[in-house]
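Appendix B, record 7
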Amino acid sequence: MKKTAIIIFLNVLIALTYEAQSQEYIKYPDNVGDIKFNQEIDNPNFILCDSNNIKQYYNFGKPMQIHGEKTNLIKYFSTNYRVSDSLNERGYVTIRFVVNCQGVTGRFRVYEMDNDCKSKKFSSNITQQILLLTKNFNQWIIGEKDGVKYDYYQYLTFKIEDGKIKEILP
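Structure tokens (predicted):
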């Protein structure tokens, strides 16, 4: 009887410990930098093929997944971006997003910082224009490795000087 009570007690203790650890684990993302769906800003029609296996753009052995390479992207922004009235604006605007296995983009996030890498708020004329142009750029290559198509994270960082885009990274 004593042995049975001890075994039951240990099993309950193990179950409670496992449950506590599981609940703590849920607080954290699966991977640093995951972009979770946000119903307030994300398009509900944007569908991922496998939300548990989103690759990074560099996992495919290419510097960037764009038809026409990066020169196509640079040409697109130089043609469509209108220089802001905010000529004293300097720093970096980064747009992170997901390209799904059909080459469609979604889950856009904007990060802004000054030249000292401190958080900064740019004129909305700059950030909203860059965000809209990024959303409308549709030359992303479908991520594929060993014949399997994947969703992947992509980012674009825009170096801003005097309201102009001086460079696009990566």
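Remarks on this record: The two ends are 67 Å apart (CA to CA). The CA atoms of residues 48 and 100 lie 6 Å apart.
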